[in-house]
Structure to design on (128 residues):
């Protein structure tokens, strides 16, 4: 992304996630500076949508009305970059999914577990 695109993204990101009394804005957390790169590395399918959203001539309200798909992609990118920041994770007390053993009584029959184990994980790994 060039400097102009990052600047536009910072402006839009702050409209989506402005600063509050206890939380910093999206741009203050580096969403446009470096966070977007982490998100787009994990979700390269969003690159063309972000480019279109940043090139859209109107404001966020017009974008949401005219191109809800681009507005949704922009929101996903900004929120994803924001919540990937360790400082934000510390503030909200959430550092991502963690493995937690499940104890059952009586044990779950292997015939029920086998298809789930064969399927494998369904989540995307953390891009860090």
């Amino acid at each position: 992304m060039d400097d102009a695109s990052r600047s536009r993204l910072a402006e839009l990101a702050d409209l989506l996630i402005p600063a509050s009394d206890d939380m910093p804005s999206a741009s203050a957390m580096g969403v446009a500076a470096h966070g977007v790169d982490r998100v787009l590395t994990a979700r390269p399918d969003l690159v063309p949508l972000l480019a279109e959203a940043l090139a859209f001539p109107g404001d966020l309200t017009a974008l949401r009305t005219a191109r809800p798909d681009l507005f949704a992609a922009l929101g996903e990118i900004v929120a994803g970059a924001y919540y990937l920041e360790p400082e934000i994770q510390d503030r909200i007390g959430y550092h991502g999914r963690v493995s937690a053993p499940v104890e059952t009584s009586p044990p779950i029959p292997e015939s029920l577990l086998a298809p789930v184990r064969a399927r494998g994980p369904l989540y995307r790994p953390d891009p860090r």
